[in-house]
Amino acid sequence: MARIEVPDELLVDELRLRPMVEADVPAVVEACQDPDIPRFTTVPSPYGEAEGRSYLEFCDHEWADGTGAPFLVVDAATDELLGSMGLMRLADDGATTELGYWIAASARGKGVATRAARVVTAAALRGGAQRVELRAMTDNVGSRLVAERVGFSLEGVLRSVMAHGCSADRIDLAIYSMLPSDPAAERLLATSAVG
């Protein structure tokens, strides 16, 4: 089966996207104390060192077997953690992948998510992706704006698609996509350097 090929390091402006290493665990744990991260993602709460180490193992496994490309987003000059952004399900059908991310509270509102999403999406398309998806809770205005700024097309809402957190509540997800033939993808590929 064909697989989407993505570099293990990406640069955009002052941002560096790279794999997680053990030294990152404390910063990831600290960032995930922000209640908005588990509120709008599948990151567990509470989040301690055990969860941080589990995430490191998950990331290592995803890179090793080629099923995902989980990056940390860091300041290129200082290596300060700004967030996590990655591609999931790289090998399911060899053509479709999903972009998922969270941004640390101190880095929000500065264009970090949009710039990182552009470069990761461009890398996926260059690597052979025929469809990149982005799913966001319908009330997650910030993530939905990122999808729109990058040029993803809203396809609709998946109603009551999954349980979220410890409750039995089920949530709705807005689903966005980008295909290589989309005009937004052509513009993205023309303007996003990878590497």
Outline the structure in words.
By secondary structure, this protein is α+β, with helices and mostly antiparallel strands. It has helices spanning about 25-30, 35-40, 50-65, 110-125, 140-150, 185-190; strands at about 10, 15-20, 70-75, 80-90, 95-105, 130-135, 155-165, 170-180. α1 packs across α3 and α4 packs across α5 (about 140-150). The mean pLDDT is about 90.
Spatial gap, N to C terminus: 25 Å
Task: Output the strand order for the largest sheet.
Answer: 1-2-3-4-5-6-8-7
In DSSP terms (H or I, runs of 4 or more residues), the helix count works out at 6
What would the average pLDDT be, to the nearest integer? 92
Task: Give the topology string: H per helix, E per strand.
Answer: EEHHHEEEHEHEEH
| Main β-sheet description | 8 strands, mixed
Shape: globular
Extended strand count: 8
| Residues in helix, % | 25-40%
Category by helix and strand content = alpha+beta
User: Could you name the ranges where pLDDT drops below 50 across 5 or more consecutive residues?
Assistant: none
| Rg (CA only) | 16 Å
Strand content: 25-35%
Task: For the structure shown, list the relevant keywords.
single chain; 195 residues; alpha+beta; eight-stranded mixed beta sheet; 8 strands
Write the layout of secondary structure elements.
Elements: E1 10-12, E2 15-18, H1 25-31, H2 36-40, H3 49-65, E3 68-75, E4 81-88, E5 96-103, H4 112-126, E6 131-137, H5 141-150, E7 153-163, E8 170-178, H6 183-191
Parallel strand pairs: 5-6
Antiparallel strand pairs: 1-2, 2-3, 3-4, 4-5, 6-8, 7-8
Helix pairs in contact: 1-3, 4-5
